[in-house]
Amino acid sequence: MLRKMGASQFNDWKVYSELEPFDEERADLRAGSIVAAIANVNRNPKRKPTPYTTFEMALKFGDTPSLQVKRTGWQQMKETAKMIAAAYSGA
Q1: CA angle 60–22–7, rounded 5-degree value
Q2: Could you report the per-residue pLDDT of 4-52, keeping only the tens digit for each?
């Protein structure tokens, strides 16, 4: 498959994997969501008032950057929605 893939297509897949991870990072997030659910069910709200998050519980390794939620403001979300709408409408 890689022999037939051009640089542009490879770059497209790389960008897609950043938006929708499909590698080990995705598996770590799935495991983190299960661990967070179990931890939150057994959490003492007096000792830890805020719930555990998936990203807190995801596996992290020494050479891997930590997984963090990318916070996006409503203005950026609105612009993204406009671009998606324009792409689907052909504008």
Answers
A1: 110
A2: 778 888 888 888 877 776 777 778 888 999 999 999 999 999 999 999 9
DSSP 62: T
Contact 52, 43 (CB under 8 A): yes
3-state secondary structure of 75: helix
Q: Locate tokens 């997030």: which residue?
A: 29
The DSSP element (H or E) to which 83 belongs, if any, is helix 74-89
Residues 68 and 39: beta-carbon distance below 8 Å:
no
Distance, CA of 9 to CA of 75 (rounded, Å)? 30
Residue with tokens 């897609």: 16
Tell me the two tokens of residue 49.
Answer: 């008032």
